[in-house]
Prior knowledge:
The structure is a single chain. The model is unreliable at about 10-20 and about 160-170 (pLDDT under 50). The protein is globular, with a radius of gyration of 17 Å. The chain has two helices and nine strands; from the N terminus they run H-H-E-E-E-E-E-E-E-E-E. By secondary structure, the protein is mainly beta. The chain has one domain (about 25-150): Metal Binding Protein, Guanine Nucleotide Exchange Factor, Chain A (Beta Complex). The chain binds zinc ion (ZN). Zinc ion (ZN) binds next to loops.
Amino acid sequence: MSTPEPSINPAVAPADAADADRTPLTDEEWARRLTPQEFDVLRRAGTERPYTGEYWDTHVEGVYACRACGQELFRSSEKFDAHCGWPSFFAPLAEDRVEYIKDASLGMERIEVRCAACGSHMGHVFAGEGYGTPTDLRYCINSISLRLDPGPLTPSQDPADEDAAPGRGRA
Ligand SMILES: [Zn+2]
């Protein structure tokens, strides 16, 4: 796959641009393609303030992709209202779309969720909170880590839970 060379600020040494198609992007490259806010969350494992993100209260049908690389990670059919201020899902689109990292920051042990394709930070997953979802898991994901592609979901993946979202009564 050959992508056209992006026009690079000549003041910046292009030393690491050479084998960009197989090595992960450098911080500098990420910083160029993401906004400062996106960079802070996706590449620095930051957390957006609750109730400020684009998708925490979104009920639109569609697929949520990684904002950094575009890999499809979550679907509206697994999204639920956790009222925590961040988009919450009870499962990813598929297990191999995300990876889990033990995160002992903030003096507690949490499980960080990252995009398996590009390693960008999504959020954390919490278990056993009693939300009554099919998995009892809450993938607490930053809106800014995601990009919603609205549209009807294809029912192929798993036929599990059509009625998991009681608010969505469209006949
Ligand atoms: Zn990604």
